[in-house]
Amino acid sequence: MKKTKSLLLILLLTFSFFKIQAQTSLPTSWDCSPSTLPVGWTTNITGYYTSASYMHSAPNAAKFDATGIYLTVNFVDEPDTLIYYLRGAFFSGGTFVIQQSVNGTNWATIRTFTDANIPNSSLASATPFKDALSADSRYVRFFYTLKSSGNVAVDDISVTLRPPGPEAKIKIKYNNKFVASGGTIVSGTSNPVQLRVINQGTDSVLNIVSASFTGIDASMFSQSAAPMNINPGDSAIFNVNYTPAGADGTKTAIVSMATNDADQNPYVVNIWAVKGCCASEPTQAASNLNFSYVKSFKFRVNFSDNTLPPDHYLVLKKSSPITEEPFDGQSYRKGEYIGDAQVAYIGAAGYFYPSNVVANNHYYIKLFSFNGFPGYENYLTTTTASADTTTLENMIGTYYDAIDEFSPTLWTDLHTLINNHFPVYYSDYISNLINNYESRDTLVGGKSQKTVTCVYSGENYVYTEPFSFTVFSREHVFCESWMPTYNNANYTALPEYADYHNLQPVNQNKINVYRLNFPLGKVVTVQYQYLEGKKGLDSLNHVVFEPRDKIKGDCARAMFYQILCYDGVNGDDWYLPVVVDSATMYGQDESLLKKWNTQDPPDNYEIARNDYIFSLQSNRNPFIDHPEWANWFGFGVNSTINTNNSADVFSIYPNPCNGEFSIQMGNSKDAILNVFDLKGIELYSASLKNNSANSIDLSKLNPGMYLYRISKPEKIIGYGKLIIEK
């Protein structure tokens, strides 16, 4: 039997916060499916196991894969037993705990797992753990307190209800939902406020000896029900009369019921009501609004409470000055739009990172203080906090400072630079790319959700967090079967397999199974199409896959990167396939990729993505930073950048020139001159005669710097800068 709680303790624990917490009735259980997290359960888990040895039952088991990952259950009834299945996954040197709490703040450890006692056998036939819970506990938590190595799998969790005893046992419902002692009900303008008092005892009458009201607006509330007696297993209505007075706004009180339930005497319920339409309006805006960690792909919004904090803040984000305002009594969700401004955050003071941030964009942020529960919000619009910032154009910095772009060893120099990178894990794509960059806030059916775009088709896939690879998959733009290491026994553990520069999110069944390992190309005869992604025959009757126009240059640059980064590693030659396989007796068209590279230059999204991957892998895609470089190399099987063949000598003069100059060629047949602007766009092309001087007239071009390349079908002879002065 627990000791009787004092009214003072309950008031200190509950009324100072005076907010609703999502609770569940007992018994409660979860099969660890990401889409079915029950009411009262909260978690920051993002990964799930699907392997049979890590699950007790389908479809998933929860994956605790980092320090600080937790799963919390908050319930209203007296618990009896916590039941669960648990095993380690290469777990070593860490600590994982199971805890319980009366108030969700102070935790007592029930069980601790370390190297010494964590099981590592299959969960499919495992015996469940069963931990007895204290009757006064209202929270249970699974908590990875310290990760050294490995993960923890947990599945099929349940909390059972303590069987009723013969003594009187009080429970209260409001609007058919249990209200824990110390909990809050939102009654709004209801009068009377009807509480259903239940006696869960089996052999004793529940006595409500008396009821009293305290708090700021106690004089506006009264009752005529107490004293009252409730038979075992029965219930009765306890009416709270509400007579609002004074100014419109929030009215609060605490009703305390003295009972003969020795465990819950008194039983305390916080009442939140209003006079008029809404809560009391806040009087102050947030303070100290500023930005930090401003990069091309993210920025952090920081702000703090003023001297009189509101209940919450609503934050809008827009790419132009924000004139939109929220409406009183209207509930908003993250991802929702008010006019053209998106709700980026709702919550307490502190900081947050807005989603959908790209390079070189101006962002405006505006904060509105508000009070009230859903449906009764009152927003302060006369005084707000606002600021704006611009993300970086790029984060190239000094990365290429040691590179001479006109050196005959440019290919080797760039390869050495970008191949020296930090290997990442294919399995971490969700936590690294999806959660931190690819996903964006959205609102569907009144519910805050996330969306990720299929790179090939443009489909916006909406999901409830956490993301899992069920509808979408990770696509290798440069196909894994094209890689020379594809037949290695452990090729999926190699850096090239997991390189994020070459991985993109796509719809698995509607896109990826049709792309397979077919080359990318221009579809003339469509055989299959989903949104903007097509599969069909090109002009040569070859089966190819065509991505949407917006991403074609991105795909080309990903392929060029993959070849440059890994060419020559362990003696392997990387190039665009000449023949894909025995069923696809043709390869990837290099000239088409270079055309796409020019037609679809890097946009702010691709630039920011390159910068973000740079922050993870410590290397960049040079063809995003310098798309013109793609025109200087060949990526096919016979490609070379050798400029030292004595038969391929040439000279160009004068340079600088007024637009007219000559190129003296040696004994080099079939040479071609190409001239590009600094964005890599081709401006001029001409064949050159061997063993003679070739006069070139580019006087129609504006003065400035241009790039020239002299090449033959099988290789590049040379390249450099061309200066036109007039």
Give a summary of the structure in a few sentences:
This protein is mainly beta. It folds into five domains: 27-161, Jelly Rolls (Sandwich); 170-275, Immunoglobulin-like; 287-390, Immunoglobulin-like (Sandwich), CATH 2.60.40; 468-626, no CATH class; 646-724, Immunoglobulin-like.
Features:
disordered N terminus, about 10% helix, Jelly Rolls, mainly beta, 45 strands, six-stranded antiparallel β-sheet, Immunoglobulin-like, about 725 residues
Describe the protein in words.
This protein is mostly beta strands and 726 residues long. The protein is built from nine helices and 45 strands. The strands form eleven sheets. Strands 1, 3, 4, 6, 9 and 11 form a six-stranded antiparallel β-sheet that branches. Strands 24, 25, 26, 28, 29 and 30 form a six-stranded antiparallel β-sheet that branches. The chain has a five-stranded antiparallel β-sheet with strand order 2-5-10-7-8, with no helix packed on it. A hairpin with a 5-residue loop joins strand 7 (95-101) and strand 8 (107-113). The longest helix has 15 residues, at 552-566.
